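Structure tokens please, single chain.
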Amino acid sequence: MSVGIVMLVHTALGRAEQVARHWSVAGCPLVIHADVSVPNKTYHAFQKSMSDLPNVRFSRRHRCEWGTWGLVAASQSASEMMLKEFPEVRHVYLTSGACLPLRPVQELLDYLAVRPLTDFIESATTADVPWTIGGLDAERFTLRFPFSWRKNRYLFDRYVALQRRIGMKRRIPNGIVPHMGSQWWCLTRQTLSAILSDPERGTYDRYFSKVWIPDESYFQTLARQYSHQIESRSLTLSKFGYQGKPHIFYDDHLQLLRRSDCFVARKIWPQASRLYDAFLTDEAGAMNRTEPNPAKIDRIFAKAVERRTRGRPGLYMQSRFPVESRENGLTSSKYSVFQGFSALFENFEPWLARATGARVHGHIFAPERAEFSDGEVVMNGALPDSAALRDYNPRAFLANLIWNTRGERQCFQFSPRDNQDINWDIAKDPNAQISVISGAWSVPLFKSNQDFADIRRDAALLQQIESKHLEILRSSWTKARVRIWTMAEFIEAPIEPLQTIIDDIAPHTTQRGLSEVPKMIDLTGFGQFLQNLKNQGMHPYLMGNFPVSHDLQDTRKNARKPYLVR
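Here you go.
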């Protein structure tokens, strides 16, 4: 028994000759088809270079453009010559000039010898395959495609749209069920000869010549008509990217290809000398006999495709940066935002840093400068504290800050006085943990020594800004983890919310409860301050309900004494 190799070539003829000699020396007859696009001088030199091989033939040449009938016609011509010239051939293996045998040829011969009636061809209906690219599944068999998708894309799209609009549909001949699969098959002599000598071949050829990408459906469909036993898989390792383009294997894929245990792989880079030297060798240096199992490396390819299409969280590349939602998350890790805490507590930042071990910044979106922790003017990644540079792209500023300090929890303060352009980005970021004491912005105004008319004006503006921010945080589009307290309810029992916040940031450091709490600013007279704002016509509603007649300290004095339960 022998296996015949049909090889389709169009470039890198030197490598194609090297592989052809490998097949020929192992006893496999070859029929080579060279694309019409190969210059005659180059083609004749290619023929002459292999004239010393008695089991090599060259078939009639066709023009082979991607997705056109020429690829099927080339396979037909070469297969017909194979069956005619080499009657001892029992299986015909379709390859390309960019294919490379990964295992000794004798292993392939032995493998097929024990499966004399098995056809290896990927063949599945359009409803069962997930790999179709370009928006055409069943329509590729019911519409006409006289224009090249690559060379005349405009005409291709317009003609498809026209056929859809007028409801044009082609009749599938003789009730056959269209199947699809990899172009690279290995068919038995019986099945292949039945396809090529079918009395209805002219009908089938005319039909499939107008099908889109017929080389992935012609033999895949007709093999179902005649084969006694089909294994719907290819013996050739061929991987495709998310755009439907084949992966190219380079020298650094050597160990990956060894792990596949496949007989043949495509598409090999012509300059990958290490691969050609490693696999076009004797049996001693080849892989062990085992069942082909390309699934062993599918996980690696799936991970590569995911990295190619999604990237890493919080890391931007040029192809994704201009398009919102194409990035894999705004930031790379979790961080915390505190609004109102630094206004209500003295030295809140150093206290939080001690309690959690996180890096706690001030107002990094403050109008004057980015207030980095410990007064730093440059952060990791050469990120400066310049407000002008930060405000040029606040989103990128935040993403860079979190990315360059990954591995360390970042916390920063925020207020209505800060740059509000970042609000939606933070709200939609699942990595963000936002804690808000609404109305706390009024405490610095309360402590300031400004004219009350100026205080009233600033209070009205800040309340309006915070109100819009709270609407964003309560939006259905918000993905951040948000906690909002009014100032009145927070100061009534501040320990519980502080403990909750600390537990979220550093859950393993506060198992016994807080041993230290930040000192709250003296709010004596704050209720009267809010009433004065009301008297001036400004309604401060975000702080909650503060009584005017007594202050926070009075409430604490009247609180019930704790009692002991035995």
